[in-house]
């Protein structure tokens, strides 16, 4: 009985150690992406960023519209070039996503951040040469 109890304690301890090790590794991996962006110089960041042209489109309900511009930061040079080549697809994605949002959905910094995250996810679905790390809203007027 004592041997069985000791074995269970050892197995539980080993499982806890493995979980702790794997959990901290994934947290480090998530944090490394943010740290990588923070470590880039302004020049390096500019080289990885593609600036979209101004766009005007309807918001949900068709009685309001938004005039906006975005800059998309890629994780590598090939991905930045791919963003330029996929400009028509990215414009389409943005038009479709904004058409689902009301002015209240993108109100304030929290709404803007949610919109940027959603656009990043959708654009990354079509990317093959890398990923978009961040979407920056560089202009926004809602009328």
Please give a structural write-up.
With 143 residues, the protein is α+β, with helices and mostly antiparallel strands. The protein contains five helices and four strands. Strands 1, 2, 3 and 4 form a four-stranded antiparallel β-sheet that branches. The longest helix is centred in the N-terminal third of the chain and has 38 residues, at 2-39. It starts with a helix and ends with a strand. The model is unreliable at 24-35 (pLDDT under 50). One of its GO terms (biological process) is chemotaxis. It is a single-pass membrane protein. InterPro entries: FliL.
- The amount of helix comes to 55-70%
Helix and strand composition category: alpha+beta
Write the CATH fold name of the largest domain: Tetrahydropterin Synthase, Chain A
Largest sheet: 4 strands, antiparallel
CATH class of the largest domain: Alpha Beta
Strand percent estimate: 15-25%
Distance between the termini: 75 Å
Radius of gyration: 22 Å
Count the DSSP helices: 5
Q: Supply the CATH architecture of the largest domain.
A: 2-Layer Sandwich
Q: Low-confidence segments, ≥5 residues, pLDDT <50?
A: 24-35
Annotated CATH homologous superfamily of the largest domain:
Band 7 domain
The count of DSSP E runs of length 2 or more, i.e. the number of strands, is: 4
Overall mean pLDDT score? 85
**What form results from the Cα inertia axes?**
elongated
Series of secondary-structure elements, N-terminal to C-terminal: HHEEEHHHE
**Number of domains in the coordinates?**
2
Counting copies of identical and different chains, the oligomeric state is: single chain
Keywords: Cell membrane, Chemotaxis, Flagellar rotation, Membrane, Transmembrane, Transmembrane helix
Subcellular location: Cell membrane
InterPro entries: FliL
Family: Belongs to the FliL family.
């Amino acid at each position: 009985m004592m041997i069985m109890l000791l074995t269970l304690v050892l197995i539980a301890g080993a499982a806890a150690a493995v979980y702790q090790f794997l959990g901290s590794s994934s947290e480090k991996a998530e944090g490394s992406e943010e740290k990588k962006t923070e470590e880039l110089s302004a020049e390096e960041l500019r080289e990885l960023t593609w600036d979209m042209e101004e766009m005007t489109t309807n918001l949900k309900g068709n009685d309001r519209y938004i005039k906006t511009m975005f800059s998309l930061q890629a994780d590598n040079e090939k991905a930045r070039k791919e963003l330029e080549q996929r400009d028509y697809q990215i414009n389409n994605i943005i038009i479709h996503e904004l058409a689902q949002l009301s002015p209240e959905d993108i109100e304030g910094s929290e709404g803007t951040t949610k919109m940027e995250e959603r656009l990043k996810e959708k654009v990354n679905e079509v990317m093959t040469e890398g990923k978009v790390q961040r979407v920056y809203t560089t202009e926004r007027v809602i009328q």
